[in-house]
Amino acid sequence: MTAPVEREFVVLSRGEARELILATFREGLRNSIDPDTGALCTEDTVRRVTQAGSRFYNEADGIDLALMASGKRAEFLAQQISHDRASSAFLRTRHAPLWGESFLPGFSSSGTVAATGTPGTTWIGSTTLPDALATYGTDPAGKRYQVVTGGIADANGEATLSLASLDTGLEVNIPIGTVITWANAPGGSAPTATVNLADFTGGLPAETDEAFVARLGSRIRHKPASGNDAHFRSWARAASVSVEDAFIYPTAFHAGSVLVCITQKRGSTTGPFARQNVSSGVLAAVTNTLVPPGSAFVPPRVRVLVVRPQSRTTNPVLLLSLLKGSNSGWADVEPFPVSRGALASVQITSLSDQQNFSITAGSTGQLPGGVAGPLPGITIMGWNASTSRFVSLGTASVTDAGAGVYDVVLDSPPAGITLATGSFISPDTALRDSIAEGIEEYFDSLGPGEVVTLGTDARGVTAFRRPRPSEEYPARAGQTIVTFVSDAIQAAAADIQLDTISVSTPTVPTDPADGPELLTVNNVNVLPLD
Q1: pTM value?
Q2: Domain locations in the chain as residue ranges
Q3: How far is 423 from 304, CA to CA, in rounded Å?
Q4: Which of 351, 369, 371, 357 is nearest to 406 (CA)?
Q5: Which candidate, 19, 151, 209, 289, has a CA 20 to 30 Å from the CA of 243?
Q6: Once rounded to an integer, what is the mean pLDDT over residues 100-116?
Q7: Short-list 173, 420, 164, CA closest to 274
């Protein structure tokens, strides 16, 4: 076994230098004459003149403090050499200029609103932010939003307008239903408009140290030069702080073409599609940066297409070995359901209303004690596919109807979820949020797949995805989800297994222009392993 490499310098712990100094001083005293006795110093004299609080002890302790401070300063300075350990000041004054990079400013959100007015009312838009001629308004918090794509009220006096925020940060990602009050409403317009269709997304504050370090690390690892794939990736990520990453597919259409697929930082956005639902503002920023003739970097003859990834949903089933009847495991002493039998998952197969439904678990006798019921006190949870979270469902009774079917009556309509045929049902656990966060983090670590069939398409030798899935952002889903869930719940699980997953590999799109597929979690089952 090879010996570990020594540190470049030694950083002393508190008191280490003091004890070395006193030990050397004690050895010297033992060979010295005591002026009071004329004989060699005794051990009692040596102990007395070097004890805590003595002159010599205090001198050694002062030297120890000075050396420790000097060592810590040297350690701090040594850390600044590496960009991933440097302080914020060194990142800005040394590493950023060294690599020709700068911290990215905050970015605006974008979305649509429903505006009303008399038929023919015109709301003026502009892609220049801000533009004094464009219509703009404010939300209840005073944040400003400008019309970027104008519109005219139809015969019903209605128009859908595209807006972008003039302010930046997470707070401009306003939800559906937010009222925008016009500051310069055109004649005939109602004084307000309402966010419709979807939440505003894309708004982020200025780039953090952590995000800058990640972006700089990619640049250092893959050197951008002469318009190579690393250059396109660098340009795309620098176009907006809201760009999580860019995936480059050279010659995706023909020689001299480049497909760029971008994902968006999650920020405050919830749900499984936060990364692939790239806002129109972020998409426009990257497009303006990369697509000729407006691009300042790419020559006119290059065909560049910037796209969002397509979502390819998948349903994992996880088996967890947890304590039973515990706040750190399964809520019930005998969890239900205990297995999915021969089925792909445990899910609602018929639904009368939000309190009465049936689930199919694939085998009979899964209720505690193997009874048929109706049995009260069973605790279950459902997976909310729109938020990627489990929701606890209190039951009034569960009845074994035979053939693996169980009739469930809830004690009240559930909050935070709308049950439907196909909703996945699992035994309840207090770890539900931690498990869901681990699953979400895992799928956030995946990247899109390929846009051509690498083995048979002639473009496959050059059109494969950069960065490669083997290096960053794997495209396949599988057993690694266990690691993320295990880290999320730490020591609570004795064992975790991936039982099944409905889709593990993204498929190749019919047309590369449609964008590559990105695996996204849909429904999730967690069931007892033992």
Answers
A1: 0.84
A2: 16-79, 110-201, 209-308, 331-428, 436-528
A3: 41
A4: 357
A5: 151
A6: 95
A7: 173
Distance between CA 258 and CA 235 in Å, rounded?
A: 13
Backbone angles phi, psi at 13, to 5 degrees: -85, 165
Q: Confirm if 21 and 14 have CB atoms less than 8 A apart.
A: no
User: Any residues with CB less than 8 A from the CB of 37 and at least 6 apart, and which?
Assistant: none
Helix 229-239 × helix 280-290 angle, to 10°: 140
Q: Is 98 helix (H, G, I), strand (E, B) or coil?
A: helix
Give the separation between CA 160 and CA 139, rounded to whole angstroms: 17
CA distance linking residue 172 with residue 193, whole number of Å: 16
pLDDT band at 2 (very low <50, low <70, confident <90, very high): low
Distance CA 11, CA 522 (A): 51
- How far from 488 is each of 131, 271, 274, 448, 464, CA to CA, in Å? 46, 18, 20, 24, 33
Tokens linked to 240? 């907006």
| Consecutive H or E run containing 20 | helix 16-30
Distance between CA 182 and CA 144 in Å, rounded?
Answer: 10
Task: Look at the alpha carbons of 357, 360, 364, 370 in this order and tell me if their dihedral is positive or negative.
Answer: negative
Task: Select from 356, 431, 358 the least CA-distant residue to 392.
Answer: 431
Helix (H, G, I), strand (E, B) or coil at 246: strand
Structure confidence at residue 427 as a pLDDT band (50, 70, 90): very high
Question: Is the Cα torsion angle 145, 215, 517, 320 positive or negative in sign?
Answer: negative
Say if residue 106's pLDDT is above 90.
Answer: yes
pLDDT value at 7 more than 70: no
Residues 463 and 251: their CA atoms lie apart, in Å, by 5
Task: Answer whether residue 76 shows pLDDT above 90.
Answer: no
CA angle 334, 337, 343 (to 5 degrees): 150
End-to-end CA distance of the chain: 41
Integer Cα distance of 310 and 515 in angstroms: 6
- Distance from C-alpha of 320 to C-alpha of 169, rounded to nearest angstrom: 39
What letter represents residue 411's amino acid? D
Q: How far apart are CA 442 and CA 483, in angstroms?
A: 9
Average pLDDT in the chain: 93
Note the pLDDT tens digit of each residue in 175-225: 999 999 999 999 999 999 999 989 999 999 999 999 999 999 999 999 999
Q: Classify residue 508 by burial, with Cβ atoms within 10 Å: 0-12, 13-18, 19+.
A: middle
**SS3 state at 244:** strand
